[in-house]
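can u do me a favor
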């Protein structure tokens, strides 16, 4: 089948061979687990437990703090030890709940109660997704129940599963494709029941032929569900790129996928939907790829959310030698961290540790080669945006459509002068958005 794709993008080194053949292993931690309240886009969750409370697996530790927010669920049984700010991966502090794990993993009442989604009303399905605390697990962290609550009158004709996993090194979704494709198809059927007449499409990059084969086989007999092979290219998994490749429709920063008739969910998220709706299991664990040339045994590990990353790395055999750089997420869009005493969040897809950091090169002057322009999937002018961003000229930045930047990092990747283009552009974009929000509050 002809593989679909989008304009622009890059072909970064894969790095996936380190962990792609490592079957998912389960790790159950023993010590304290930390549940951050800001694991999603939107308002932080509001703790609903107090120090000294006994909590069980599947019990809510925090309620959504607003419409765009998500519940936080305990992944262990034990005693609440603290409700206090804790350090996040970006160095900021956020409210958190710390649970002293008793190692019993005792479930709360109703945990694991099976249901037939075909007998549930759409609002019951969306409520189950909300109660389960499900958010986009590919990295974005957008609350899934909000994504599913489309405006009345909006016609959704495509539910697209993002199976691109285009970031180098990350293989957690690939392993799920091989090991749990039926559950993802069940998740797709549940979502399709919310949007009568819609088609379900799994978009999977064609560098994963075994993943495609497994999902095609799991879809057999499902007339409304198909697999669309996508060309291996970064950032193929970006929401705008995926919608464009699958439907030919375009969206921009002022639009939602629903404005183009689409709902887009990540592969692991679809499995979380099936677990929550059909099997009564809220989002309490996820698969994390632990990889990079510094890691002794690159692995895909399923862990309770809140597990300390140091423990996770130890379970993967520890480091061969001190890594020069550690990134949460992939090398293109991930965030570098300076320490590992941090919890696994709902969006922690990968812990990547390098001995050799190829990006650690001093930036030089621009040689006007134009490569950044040609590669930008949003057809922006990265060097001009960076120049405006660096002098704080936000008016020019906006005129040059800087808000359309998706932060993919392609411009930085191709720049022969190693200029930190996407980093400057993302900072300027965040500044402009924050100023707009402040101005809206004042009105
Ligand atoms: S300007 Fe933004 S969207 Fe364009 S390549 Fe750079 S990071 Fe990606
Ligand atoms: S890719 Fe780098 S060197 Fe080339 S035009 Fe863009 S900023 Fe300048």
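np, heres the sequence
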């Amino acid at each position: 089948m002809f593989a679909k794709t989008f304009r622009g993008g890059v072909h970064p080194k894969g790095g996936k061979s380190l962990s792609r053949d490592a079957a998912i292993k389960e790790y159950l931690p023993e010590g304290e687990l930390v549940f951050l309240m800001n694991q999603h886009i939107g308002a932080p969750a509001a703790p609903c437990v107090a120090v000294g409370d006994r909590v069980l697996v599947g019990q809510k530790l925090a309620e959504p703090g607003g419409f765009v927010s998500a519940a936080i669920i305990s992944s262990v049984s034990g005693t609440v030890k603290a409700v206090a700010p804790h350090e996040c991966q970006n160095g900021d502090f956020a409210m958190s709940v710390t649970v002293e794990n008793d190692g019993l993993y005792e479930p709360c009442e109703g945990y694991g109660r099976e249901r037939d989604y075909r007998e549930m009303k759409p609002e019951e399905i969306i409520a189950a997704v909300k109660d389960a605390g499900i958010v986009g697990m590919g990295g974005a962290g957008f609350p899934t129940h909000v994504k599913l609550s489309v405006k009345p009158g909006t016609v959704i004709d495509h539910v697209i599963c993002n199976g691109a996993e285009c970031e180098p090194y990350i293989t957690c979704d690939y392993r799920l494709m091989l090991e749990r494709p039926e559950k993802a198809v069940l998740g797709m059927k549940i979502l399709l029941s919310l949007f009568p007449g819609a088609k379900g499409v799994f978009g999977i990059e064609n560098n994963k032929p075994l993943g495609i084969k497994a999902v095609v086989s799991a879809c057999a007999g499902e007339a409304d569900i198909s697999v669309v092979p996508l060309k291996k290219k970064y950032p193929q998994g970006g929401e705008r790129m995926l919608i464009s490749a699958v439907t030919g429709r375009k969206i921009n920063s002022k639009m939602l996928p629903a404005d183009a008739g689409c709902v887009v969910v990540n592969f692991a998220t679809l499995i979380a939907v099936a677990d929550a709706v059909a099997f009564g299991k809220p989002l309490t664990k996820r698969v994390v790829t632990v990889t990079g040339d510094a890691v002794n045994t690159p692995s895909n590990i399923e862990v309770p959310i809140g597990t300390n990353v140091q423990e996770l790395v130890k379970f993967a055999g520890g480091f061969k030698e001190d890594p020069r750089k550690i990134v949460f997420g992939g090398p293109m869009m991930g965030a570098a961290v300076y320490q590992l005493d941090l919890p696994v969040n709902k969006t922690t897809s990968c812990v990547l540790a390098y001995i050799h950091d190829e990006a650690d090169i001093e930036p030089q002057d621009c040689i006007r080669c134009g490569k950044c322009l040609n590669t930008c999937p949003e057809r922006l002018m990265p060097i001009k945006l960076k120049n405006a961003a660096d002098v704080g000229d936000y008016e020019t930045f906006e005129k040059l459509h800087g808000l359309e930047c998706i932060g993919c990092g392609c411009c930085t990747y191709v720049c022969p002068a190693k200029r930190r283009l996407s980093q400057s552009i993302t900072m300027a974009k965040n500044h402009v958005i924050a100023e707009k929000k402040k101005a809206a509050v004042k009105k």
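The chain is about 25% helix and 20% strand. hope that helps!!
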